[in-house]
Specification:
Helices cover about 30% and strands about 25% of the residues. By secondary structure, it is an alpha+beta fold.
Length: about 160
């Protein structure tokens, strides 16, 4: 499994892909976290700086070594810039029941959030969303992912 940094035109392509996916709802934060229910992507003036893709095995929410490296990078960036917010969006492939895939996408998002928190990112800076099943064009691995986006808030709108 691989993770990769997405920026520039790749981020635009990923945004279009995500816009085509089923609308998700923010899911409950880790216990004790006071998280805004408005995802950074929906806040006026927010600007996405970077996105990290974390891929999973079929039916799993376990993070492998490669995924942990990507989370190390995302957490380090978040710690260097305390004003940024993190949006974690989980996905699942369309195999199986819709409800099982929604649950799996939420578990994946929470696993990533937990990993970021253990790396020193305050839970109140993280919003998690489980989008559920989504189709793929080339490989089912495309659907078995979590996108970790780093957002700057309060940017002037054009």
């Amino acid at each position: 499994m691989k993770h990769r940094l997405v920026s520039g035109f790749a981020a635009v392509s990923l945004s279009l892909l995500l816009a085509a996916c089923t609308t998700g709802r923010p899911i409950a934060p880790l216990p004790g976290a006071a998280v805004s229910q408005v995802p950074p992507s929906q806040q006026p003036g927010a600007q996405r700086d970077r996105a990290y893709l974390i891929f999973f095995q079929e039916g799993s929410d376990a993070l492998d070594v490669e995924a942990r490296r990507g989370l190390d990078e995302a957490a380090e960036l978040a710690k260097q810039h305390p004003s940024v917010r993190i949006q974690v969006v989980g996905f699942a492939d369309p195999e199986g029941s819709s409800q099982a895939n929604v649950d799996l996408s939420r578990r994946r998002a929470r696993a990533v959030m937990g990993a970021l928190v253990t790396r020193g990112v305050a839970p109140e800076r993280i919003v998690t969303i489980g989008r559920g099943p989504t189709s793929f064009e080339q490989s089912a691995l495309e659907s078995r992912r979590v996108e970790v986006s780093v957002w700057r808030l309060g940017m002037p709108t054009r």
